[in-house]
């Protein structure tokens, strides 16, 4: 059984219902991240040097091969500050008290019993059949969290210089900060949120600049056990304010061990492969001539998916060197009544972490009976069918940078002569009337 040290926690004062009375001393009185309170605030700044190369095989950013970083990003800064917030009682429950185990079997699925996440979640309602939806400032968003929940700002060095750490950096509200904050309903040790340009109030949608920021964070961490994830709306994101998740778990995720089959090498050197012998079909992007080339290829694929209303999840692994893109249809099947009552009763909504093999279970009986067969059965319901997956692949390869690309023999994507037909088939499917669904998704953040 996996274990980490326990730290006593209490519920944060900043997680009270918004209807509760709060003091009005300065701004809104809640010391929030919005413009009413953040102007003049000082928040630690980690200003990273933008990389031109992929992180080296040792897991350390290439910029530090002959020097020492100003602060140990993962150990001293992120995890150290996260521990501080735990001791200060800013979490909804003590995640270190949750039971966790590796499920016996070939794949090594990880099971966690996390009843607190189920009982103390923040309910959020929105349409589950639309990947892109306008930001709604009346609903919960990250400008409403307390500044105490913020660990530090994470931004490129605006002068293009080396990485710097500034403990008390003033915030310029005209230049919206990107912040790293705790997830108050954590799944695992060190669970944080990366919120790009928080004051811009972007809805939950991928854009190239924000995605590159997330890839840089994985590279700065320099540890393969620290991963970042993204959930689109319709794929169990429950807050429509742009954010990525990240946490530290010192075991390999099953998806990281799955075999792959090469599909294509893009002209910028990015290799695109298909997952094999895994319950969820997906694409894997890796390599490339630069960190930005890899990031751009993935963000282009994600933008294609969201513009075609295809829900998806993303896992950024291996210090930003390998990125999984996973279109899914579980919420759609739920809405259509196509998921078995047995699976629905578990109340597990498979987002990026579950799809990657970290099964967050809400009932003790499910945890005690956890098996590789049960995990596989749940995740198989998440996956697109083979036919639909090939259609989606064809749609992606129509828009990503494939000029001078090299196709692999036996590529599973649609052959060139069938590409237009595949694309039209997906577009027709997405244009057809779909079940209008509103409701509450049970997975928080």
From TrEMBL:
Residues 254-401 form the GDPGP1-like C-terminal domain. One of its GO terms (biological process) is glucose metabolic process. InterPro entries: GDPGP, GDPGP1_C, GDPGP1_N, HIT-like_sf. The keyword Nucleotide-binding applies. Residues 74-247 form the GDPGP1-like N-terminal domain. Keywords: Cytoplasm, Guanine-nucleotide releasing factor, Hydrolase, Nucleotide-binding, Nucleotidyltransferase, Transferase. This is GDP-L-galactose phosphorylase 2-like. The gene is LOC111446172.
